[in-house]
Amino acid sequence: MAENKKIIEFKDIVKTYGKGNAATYALNKVSFSINQGEFVAIMGASGSGKSTSMNIIGCLDLPTSGEYLFNGINIEKLNRNQMALIRRNYLGFVFQSFNLLGRTSALDNVELPLIYRKTPSKQRKLIAFEALKKVGLESVANNTPAELSGGQQQRVAIARAIVTNPLVLLADEPTGNLDSIKSLEIMNLLKKLNEESKITIIMVTHEEEMAKFANRVIYFRDGHIEDSLKKGFK
């Protein structure tokens, strides 16, 4: 269940590309908030603003104007190093393409964020193994990505994203490269992590069937929020 604490706040966010008559509004005065513990899906056609919003939420980009608060921190006031620390310490990322290192084991892949944190090797392996257990892959910890199915590879990617116990997990089309059965497995896993580990999840998807796993769906259209619907939306 979602708590009342706002962890993501967009206040009149504007994002433009280009200048003068060539300026394009990717986001035009967008305002919304996401509470700690929510599972929110973001939907919209290509160019609607959903990916731009995710980039700003993930501290990968800054708005042209407006205010973005992450856990109460005004992100625009941070420098690049401080934004990198937010990403490293508070955010987990899952992508459509898995982005695993092909020649290393599942366990080594999951360890990566802990290496950046300078976690000691022995402790690192224990924490990484626990993350693999959470996604049900402890039995293939020593397998390389080539020895895993697409669904298993995405679960390794999810384990890597949650190994640092992030406040927010950002999932960008996490089922985009999977068949329908594997997609449902991944969505059930994300739902379980949200409910049992209380991780706030924000997911971009173009599939209504996947969005139904979320507690709330935010629809973008032409740089605006067209609608925001709670579970049972359609």
Tell me what you see in this structure.
Helix 3 (106-116) crosses helix 4, helix 3 (106-116) packs parallel to helix 5 (150-162) and helix 5 (150-162) packs parallel to helix 6. Helices cover 33% and strands 28% of the residues. Strand 4 (65-70) and strand 5 (73-74) form a beta hairpin. The strands form two sheets. It has a six-stranded mixed sheet with strand order 6-7-8-3-9-10, with helices on both faces. Strands 2-1-4-5 form a four-stranded antiparallel sheet, covered by helices on one side. The protein has one domain: P-loop containing nucleotide triphosphate hydrolases (Rossmann fold, 3-Layer(aba) Sandwich). The model has no long low-confidence stretch (mean pLDDT 91). With 234 residues, the chain is α/β, with parallel strands linked by helices.
- Oligomeric state, counting identical vs distinct chains: single chain
CATH topology: Rossmann fold
Order of helices and strands: EEEHEEHEHHHEHEHEE
Report Rg.
18 Å
Kindly report the average pLDDT value.
91
Family: Belongs to the ABC transporter superfamily. Macrolide exporter (TC 3.A.1.122) family.
InterPro entries: AAA+_ATPase, ABC_transporter-like_ATP-bd, ABC_transporter-like_CS, MacB-like_ATP-bd, P-loop_NTPase
Pfam families: ABC_tran
Protein name: Macrolide ABC transporter ATP-binding protein
Q: What is this entry, summarized?
A:
The strands form two sheets. The chain has a six-stranded mixed beta sheet, with helices on both faces. It has a four-stranded antiparallel beta sheet with strand order 2-1-4-5, covered by helices on one side. The chain has seven helices and ten strands.
